Amino acid sequence: MSxxxxxxxxxxxDGLELSPEQIDFAIDAYTKGLVADEQxxxxxxxxxxxxxxxxxxxxxxxxxxxxGKRSDLSSLPxxxxxxxxxxxxxxxxxxxxxxxxxxxxxxxxxxxxRGLGHxxxxxxxxxxxxxWRAALSTEEYLRQLHEVGAVVCAAGDDLAPADRKLYAxxxxxxxxxxxxxxxxxxxxxxxxxxxxxxxxxxxxxxxAFMKDxxxxxxxxxxxxxxxxxxxxxxxxLLTAMDRPLGRAVGNALEVAESLxxxxxxxxADVVELTVLLAREMLxxxxxxxxxxxxxxxxxxxxxxxxxxxxxxxGDPAAALPVAGEIQIVPAPASGTLTGLxxxxxxxxxxxxxxxxxxxxxxxxxxAGVLLRAEIGDEVKAGQPLLELHTDDPDRLxxxxxALDGAVSIDGPEVPLPLVVDRVG
Amino acid sequence: MSxxxxxxxxxxxDGLELSPEQIDFAIDAYTKGLVADEQxxxxxxxxxxxxxxxxxxxxxxxxxxxxGKRSDLSSLPxxxxxxxxxxxxxxxxxxxxxxxxxxxxxxxxxxxxRGLGHxxxxxxxxxxxxxWRAALSTEEYLRQLHEVGAVVCAAGDDLAPADRKLYAxxxxxxxxxxxxxxxxxxxxxxxxxxxxxxxxxxxxxxxAFMKDxxxxxxxxxxxxxxxxxxxxxxxxLLTAMDRPLGRAVGNALEVAESLxxxxxxxxADVVELTVLLAREMLxxxxxxxxxxxxxxxxxxxxxxxxxxxxxxxGDPAAALPVAGEIQIVPAPASGTLTGLxxxxxxxxxxxxxxxxxxxxxxxxxxAGVLLRAEIGDEVKAGQPLLELHTDDPDRLxxxxxALDGAVSIDGPEVPLPLVVDRVG
Lengths: 424, 424
Hints:
Oligomer: homodimer
Helix content of chain A: 40-55%
Order of helices and strands of chain A: HHHHEHEHHEHHEHEEHHHHEEHEEEHEE
Largest interface: A-B, 23 and 23 residues
Structural class of chain A: alpha/beta
Low-confidence stretches of chain A: none
CATH class of the largest domain in chain A: Alpha Beta
Strand content of chain A: 15-25%
CATH architecture of the largest domain in chain A: 3-Layer(aba) Sandwich
Strand order of the largest sheet of chain A: 1-4-5-13
Largest sheet of chain A: 4 strands, mixed
Mean pLDDT of chain A: 96
Radius of gyration of chain A: 22 Å
CATH superfamily of the largest domain in chain A: Nucleoside phosphorylase/phosphoribosyltransferase catalytic domain
Distance between the termini of chain A: 39 Å
């Protein structure tokens, strides 16, 4: 029996559960350009309002995976496990985490993305390293997984192409903010990547896509369920994004902070989250007896980092680029620093040049914001609180404007705990 | 300030009231092709779920009117008033009604449409009359209103073009069944037509677009409110469409029945509804002291009919075409005829050739269904109950199949009263 897309739209609009055949038809025909954008956008808006049942969502995700190729990593000699963050301000954790987990005996095959808006992208950060390249051939990718144990690189065109097309459509039709659509978008790519285990870092707070804990938990539960249905062991942590993670926000600035962590130092929250996520990943890989903290202190994670960067053309010993202009933002009053709004800092870094408004925009490696104090610190009026880094001084006023009201001294804010919850 | 359509979509999605500027922008930019179909279909689906507030809907309707030209009929020498039916099976009331109201002293400027699916269109019916043409120039139209007092003709391209474009989009995106969108679609065209008063015949029952009384009442109230906001005096009757109206369903068959009514005869329900609607129209025109029933009996309505048909090239004295093939459907049992499903009869007539599945399909003038008994009549098993008229005997089996289960003898059905409610 042939399926008419208008009947699929009507069924979802009326709150019915779509059949596997209807889902497969919609995704396949849309990927091939056989149904119109205006029909799929109506379907997406109906999904926004009616949601999807677990079985529907599992099938929808599978159909998106099947629009491209699912990698087979079963020939690798060690267990594979990956991490995905829903995106935050200063979230550079992938950089120390991937080599750390590889140093502890698992393989980390991470296909990653670029930043958009106020959140940074892992590839943008790594591209601040002279010579490093994001694009690998399949052969290079598999060889690096064998030889180094960790890859962070750009996804190929055959990774869930339906998701790319759907995401572009959602972006212009007001259908981004739907939990089943967000969950299936993330999970289709992560499942297609082929890792056997997956740890999700679902960010919560002003700087995150999910501003409140309940929605973040629902997203986490939805993704864990999709992973389970697809045979990928999935665990999620809900972590704080009411303030930036660590002290560095911006591409080269975050690489530098990641190197501190790999050298056994770095801000406590970045170290703690990196080690926590590493433990979760190692547990999924059957390596719960390995303590990742040791591999940070003894330099093994740094060794894997150097090999990982070098394998992708980067010079791990090269100096990172630095900004031509640094403006200091002083503390507005004396007291305890109780709030430093993650979203405001993210927008400031974006306006300084660290982020992009459209996919095709370039980003600055050097731009960003450096925190000179952390939440809970005592500060004195006038002491340096933030550094704004940029090569383009004309960008400073807009960045300053973004920070208006972002700093709170002796305020009523209660910061989120670093780890808010765990699902899985 | 410039408006981004994605913000308009998101606002409606989130249940906010759109501003006049947002509404004007969306309709104007869409009509001009400056925003994409996939964005407007997402907006329409959001409207499906979130509805529209009265002020929004009034503005939305005005914006659709302003996408084209609103006729100015103020130079006409008598009050103008029109009727619109939401469509039913056997609903030929416009044919006797327009000349009747004109005979009573008002002017009836009706821009009408063609049938789609199981409901017939007034223009299709009139085209069964040899020589009659639906298309008039603006000059011909105005001259006929002056000289005859009634026109039923096709709408020009400049009548609410936004509605034409939106309706085509709704049809393929599952967004037809939204009361504000239905109401604004109907009312934009009727208000643009320029009549000072408007009587709406909102059909209820299986053969109508609105199957249940509550939704039909909501639609009626919504349209009356839109009319009021636009300065058009509007009244709505909710009328029965659980069974066909009258005994004739099909183009030439309905013209013939209309002629019986204009000659002072015809089925009681058609006569009663025609007179009731005429009274409502005359009241809006300030002519409540005129009794339209008299103008049916004394032949004045027939005189206007003849002038109206002749003015559009039709020969009011010409014989109507008749079908080459007539098949009798006998009563399946003896007893009281308690049900004759309007939808089933409409589909049967459509399958016999009276209706079209797509806008561009031709229709047969002669095809249709003639009822040989009415609800409440006593029938004997085997007596002729229906006549199926067609020029194409191959169509008879599918028409018979549509009628399966449509006839109920001594059943539990309680027919709707002819007039279910009045709003206004």
